[in-house]
Specification:
The structure is a homotetramer. The first copy, chain A, has about 375 residues and is an alpha/beta fold. Chain A contains 11 helices and 20 strands. In chain A, the strands form 5 sheets. Chain A has a 9-stranded mixed β-sheet, sandwiched between helices. In chain A, strands 16-17-18-19 form a 4-stranded parallel β-sheet. In chain A, helix 4 packs across helix 5 and helix 5 packs parallel to helix 10. The radius of gyration of chain A is 22 Å and the shape is elongated. Chains in contact: A-B, A-C, A-D, B-C, B-D, C-D. At the C-D interface, strand 3, strand 16, helix 7, helix 9 and helix 10 of C face strand 3, strand 16, helix 7, helix 9 and helix 10 of D. Strand 20 of chain A pairs antiparallel with strand 14 of chain D.
Amino acid sequence: GPVSPATEARVLVINTGGTIGMVYHENVLAPQPNALVKTLRKLLILHDETYARQTCLYDYYDPPENTMVLPLSKQNKRIIYTVLEYSPLLDSCNMTTDDWAQIAKDIEKHYEEYDGFVILHGTDTMAYTASALSFMCEHLGKPVILTGSQVPIYEMRNDGRDNLLGALLIAGQFVIPEVCLYFHHKLYRGNRVTKVDAGSFNAFSSPNLAPLANAEVDISFNWDTVWRANTTAKFFIQTSMNRNVGLLRLFPGITAETVRAFLQPPMEGIVLETYGSGNAPDNRADLLEEFRKATDRGVIMINCTQCLRGSVTESYATGKALSNAGLIAGCDMTPEAALAKLSYVLAKQHLSLDEKRKMLSENLRGEMIASLQGAKLSLRDS
Amino acid sequence: GPVSPATEARVLVINTGGTIGMVYHENVLAPQPNALVKTLRKLLILHDETYARQTCLYDYYDPPENTMVLPLSKQNKRIIYTVLEYSPLLDSCNMTTDDWAQIAKDIEKHYEEYDGFVILHGTDTMAYTASALSFMCEHLGKPVILTGSQVPIYEMRNDGRDNLLGALLIAGQFVIPEVCLYFHHKLYRGNRVTKVDAGSFNAFSSPNLAPLANAEVDISFNWDTVWRANTTAKFFIQTSMNRNVGLLRLFPGITAETVRAFLQPPMEGIVLETYGSGNAPDNRADLLEEFRKATDRGVIMINCTQCLRGSVTESYATGKALSNAGLIAGCDMTPEAALAKLSYVLAKQHLSLDEKRKMLSENLRGEMIASLQGAKLSLRDS
Amino acid sequence: GPVSPATEARVLVINTGGTIGMVYHENVLAPQPNALVKTLRKLLILHDETYARQTCLYDYYDPPENTMVLPLSKQNKRIIYTVLEYSPLLDSCNMTTDDWAQIAKDIEKHYEEYDGFVILHGTDTMAYTASALSFMCEHLGKPVILTGSQVPIYEMRNDGRDNLLGALLIAGQFVIPEVCLYFHHKLYRGNRVTKVDAGSFNAFSSPNLAPLANAEVDISFNWDTVWRANTTAKFFIQTSMNRNVGLLRLFPGITAETVRAFLQPPMEGIVLETYGSGNAPDNRADLLEEFRKATDRGVIMINCTQCLRGSVTESYATGKALSNAGLIAGCDMTPEAALAKLSYVLAKQHLSLDEKRKMLSENLRGEMIASLQGAKLSLRDS
Amino acid sequence: GPVSPATEARVLVINTGGTIGMVYHENVLAPQPNALVKTLRKLLILHDETYARQTCLYDYYDPPENTMVLPLSKQNKRIIYTVLEYSPLLDSCNMTTDDWAQIAKDIEKHYEEYDGFVILHGTDTMAYTASALSFMCEHLGKPVILTGSQVPIYEMRNDGRDNLLGALLIAGQFVIPEVCLYFHHKLYRGNRVTKVDAGSFNAFSSPNLAPLANAEVDISFNWDTVWRANTTAKFFIQTSMNRNVGLLRLFPGITAETVRAFLQPPMEGIVLETYGSGNAPDNRADLLEEFRKATDRGVIMINCTQCLRGSVTESYATGKALSNAGLIAGCDMTPEAALAKLSYVLAKQHLSLDEKRKMLSENLRGEMIASLQGAKLSLRDS
């Protein structure tokens, strides 16, 4: 008869698209609908057909044609996973806030049925989506892990199988109530990552926070870093996200006209990618005036660094100029996380402007170190 | 009497400003005019007063009050350096194309008198300035090395002394006819670097090209990488740079309105920071239409990746959409280098649009690998 | 009919044993004879049964039951590989010089039939074997690539498939006339590696030489580093290796008694792992006396550093003490390479002691930078 | 009058010798007695003569000629340090257990007078000495920080000033009751480091434990890692160390004769550097017999890996063979730490053999992770 259900875990795989499931057509990669499950069924490390038949798995799980089971894990668990494939499959370059909302809704819809969720997604905007989902999911109590690959799973040399397998093993067996991103043997907090390499299997980096786990010969967790919910509130999602937000990177010679054009209505919030520790030209009255005017009409601006690593605080001089112009210090947030947070907070119509600004300056999902006071002994801020 | 001139080398240090020469005033860093030389004179590793007096150095070099001499180097050279300090000192956040032109003019003015040039500069926009100078200097035959520090040279723990000393030793002793950036024991090609860390002494990275030299216990050069001039043409500078250029980073949900506003006249050229290997939304006819319209009216756009590492080629599908919309593949250029190159090429008024586009797609100063064909064996472009 | 033979390449896989082919028995890993091929046949990325049948592959290649074919590669090649499995399978901890000779003989025996060779081997002593084979193979004109894995190929999460696949693709398609080691997406020169991590998939490092190739999304080669034969001499092997060699690591408080015991006959050569740049106690007349006595009776000693990175030269003071005691500077050789080289050279009975010492101080197979003079500008050796 | 003593901290600098204080004589580095203090007095970042005179410092501290004061730190402290120079100065290659005892005695002698201790030491054996001192110091309540340099402090480009300054600032201002090693901007636990690079300023690595602190632009501590004393017992030192200990590295073809010779009396304990996760030849009855015989006559052997990173546990098969032969699992200890621990424990004459073995398998000073059970989820130990 079937093995005791206690040893089984269920994971929902939401296949939104991306390189992992693409196929070459005339040297161009394109999504291939309804193909992924067929391939997974043939891969010994990703499906154990013997177990499925012995346990009459397909009689118990729904829909059977999209359900598979991993070989027995080292923790003596059977991870049964069901693939929910989007139609049409999406190229991650084309992802919008509506797609984020759809993913969130699918997590919510199936929240009780599954122990964890894996989201297959293209790598190009995976860091943006992971950041967005981290805010859209309120009181998350189960793992939601985004993954994908640099090379399609159908290719001979590919990173898709390892990435999917690792994500499934973690989503099905460990209590990590976070939106994560798993790639190349590492589990990251989703709102801490950025894509740093277009050509390497090691495509992502979490520059300001160590990985939550390393899946080498052994899987080792940094449990001190994993998010601990301090509430028993029920999971729900916020699907509305404000679309009138943008990313603006400073560069030498940027004109007030460019800034004004970028900030013009309907823009409601921007992440300003500044220099170093949050610096901008402080002798450019015209620029600062544009920032001030935007702030005055209610546009919210977050000051993030264009450096890969590091933090923006209000204690620096040129940072102070921006702070005086109304910008909020983005601390050590990635631009991707700051943009998603802005979109999330600006959509809260019941909040006042001040409440939104306050919320943006607080740590909501581990996306930043809220206060740097006391954490470091600076040579520069004596 | 004075030591044989054959053993001496002369370096001009152009102090444009930056953290290296700043001082704290009420916890805020501010430039301190006319202070750097006084401090350097007191530092044993940066000035040998005994030698200066024994050789009557101040009688020979001009102006004496700004001239110093390093202790004898391991290569048995005496590097005599003169500091030319800008007034006012500049915060690198405030640097403009005019400032780049001033630096270039000062190099040209003193080109024959010195064996090499060191440019002291703030770190925040040093990568932009290094890129710009690399294009502005034509047929450069001597080293021009930008450096600076994360912590002022007046502070107890600081990186300014090591950075200045290393830059002087290389500028005075080695034939490296390039605009370089020296930081934290490494010499980089100037148009290959980007600032990656706001809080570490190891602030810069050259993601797509190995350093030209490592200055550890020994100084070791990668001579295969160092630029070799294939001409004996005379050095000259181009000081005109087109200011109507900009950096635009793609993000999910970017609107056609934002793109149109950013591209509106007088904008003449932009670097588009795309996803991954040069991808953009290909189902966004509105966006592609904006790019196409801009191209049609003569705006030149370069496609660079927003990933730290990697390259944009025309062989990818979504890259092709941008290529069809008229964008030029930026290969493995940094956004900083691409922006500077655009500003440099667009200023060449005698060139036709097609000639400008052709020039932009070629390797001019080692800022990119011009052709990736044959260099790699791709899993993706069969 | 069968595809044109011109598009096919043949690789011999010599399976000596190791973790890659082990299975758990009561929580203990043990070799599993005659199992690897059965598993490889079921893995889609490692065998294309359809092609094999369509081309009547098994009629052409021998022995058919151990022959497989990879899917079509990006370079449009079919790599047909045959597994030669040792019986009994060996744990790499148990490898001896006889086993090295057996591998070399099998390469020689099949040299003309195959385009390249892959050696499956346990990771624990893989660096020693790779070093030994690099010397035993004279005038090698085809790739010999050692690989293996940290986790058995039969496990769900494993590195064996990627490692074997990468080694096959390189061995079958590229002209790299070296003994190499392929692991975790990198191809190294075999006599340059050392195992640095017991628990990571990234188990090997080549501390003093950059990898020959990186197999990420694309495979990129450092062709400047790949060995170029400057001869058309015919391939042959030297199977005799001197066994009376050893590795001795210095430590504070090491006694002359310990050294004397270690150096006593029949010991004929040792690699001394010294401190830093080749230093040893220079106030320990008793130790130096033991070294001197050993040298005087014909024992050859090579001075290598116990640091992971760096080089031993004769220009250092304490290094000079050892040089005076008769030790040969090991430059930047790994201890593994130095031991193998010693074993190889000492087996050349027709050579005089001086000829052996001279040969040991020369670069034979790219295992070291023979002369560091001029390569670096030292702060220490003015 | 003098500044309030509350803002001053006192550090004792014990200058044992090493490259940091060496000078070139005919291209050979040699120690230079009584020179370091004279140089330090002239370095602005390492001595503030104005403050010393204003506060009549030399009237208060003893001996005045060897006492200096740092400029005001960012934490508003004045660190007053006194240099105690050994005569003769020692080359670290020549260090013995007697020298370790001397250092420990000097710490004990001055323990109450100073807030922290800095030990200047050559880099070659610094990891051995740091390990030894960590065991010799019982109930340490103040920081003891070893440092030194790759290039003499008298050279133009050198790492000695930064290393000494960083060590002084940490020793004088933070509660880190450990024997540490500070090098190239990082503070490590002393018994966790090994010298990994003979030619880089970044010479040390702590492969199995993250640094205790990073001293970049800011100094940031990993307070979770810093040792917390769980006792109020009084500090004391154990100066006796057993000298009959050794390091033996396995290599293919090692003979039983070599092992027997190495293990012969008076050897009482050895660290065996095994392969990978603690493996040795398990088909070599002759070798295992030698280990067994040694164990039977009371020799204690610790099993450490020769890999830079990783751990030895008793759960592996070939490790079990060694465990059966009586070896103690060294977990993730460095060979340097294991050797020092062995020397320390074997000197405790009041302990029985079993008590010594038990002590050696426990975590005494943070030198190892005592129990790996539960810390990792292994693919290999299901």
